[in-house]
Amino acid sequence: MTWLFSWMKMKRDFLSSILRVRIY
What's the domain of life for this entry (predicted)? Predict the structure, then answer.
């Protein structure tokens, strides 16, 4: 279950970084 949580966190960070790049 921990790996799923870490994967979701990584995915969320990845999406947030993409959004951040698209904003600039």
Answer: Eukaryota
d(CA 2, CA 8): 10
- Of 9, 12, 13, residue with least CA distance to 1: 9
Planar angle of CA 12, 14, 16, nearest 5 degrees: 70
Over residues 1-15, mean pLDDT: 90
pTM assigned to the model: 0.46
Mean pLDDT value of segment 9-16 = 94
